[in-house]
Amino acid sequence: MEKDCIFCDIINGKMGTKFLYENDTLVVFKDINPVAPVHLLIVPRKHIRSINDLEQEDKKIVSEMIMAGKDMAKKQGVTKSGYKLIFNVEKGGGQIIFHLHLHLIGGWR
Ligand code: AMP
Ligand code: ZN
After folding, report:
1. What's the pLDDT score for residue 31?
2. Which of 17, 28, 41 to mutate to test the pocket of ligand 1 (most atoms within 8 A of CB)?
3. Which CATH number is 64's domain given?
4. Which pLDDT band, with edges at 50, 70 and 90, does 109 fall under?
5. Which numbered atom of ligand 1 lies nearest the CA of 87?
6. 94 occurs within a structural domain
7. pLDDT band of 4, cuts 50, 70, 90
8. Which residues line ligand 1 (CB under 6 A)?
9. What does residue 41 show for φ and ψ, rounded to 5 degrees?
10. How many domains does the chain have?
């Protein structure tokens, strides 16, 4: 857990955020400022700053995040209509929260 990290606080239940899914590796919750009808964040429990900071030992975490993205897309009913799975990387890549997360965005008609 990292000090002054809002996603670490969310993971540790300090913000009262409802999880749509959780397991030992990751949690899934709704983005507070959705850009589409479905906008979820898939967030590893381990504090990793960004994709740039991934180590070999994090391979399983990343693959679980992507699989969770696929599973959550199905639960949200957007599998057929389609969706985006996005990692923003560092400031120039649009990252504003420096705790790794995967955006699941979709639900357009
Ligand atoms: P990024 O730009 O990739 O760092 O995305 C961070 C995302 O976190 C943004 O889409 C924000 O709307 C979202 N966000 C920030 N604070 C919260 C929060 N407390 N609960 C849920 N989502 C949040
Ligand atoms: Zn964190």
Report:
1. 98
2. 41
3. 3.30.428.10
4. confident
5. 3
6. yes
7. very high
8. 6, 15, 17, 29, 31-33, 41, 88, 94-97
9. -120, 130
10. 1
pTM exceeding 0.90: yes
pLDDT at 98: 98
18-38 pLDDT tens trace: 999 999 999 999 999 999 999
Range of the domain at 34: 6-106
Does residue 76 contact residue 38 with C-beta atoms inside 8 Å? yes
| H helices present in the chain, as ranges | 6-11, 59-75
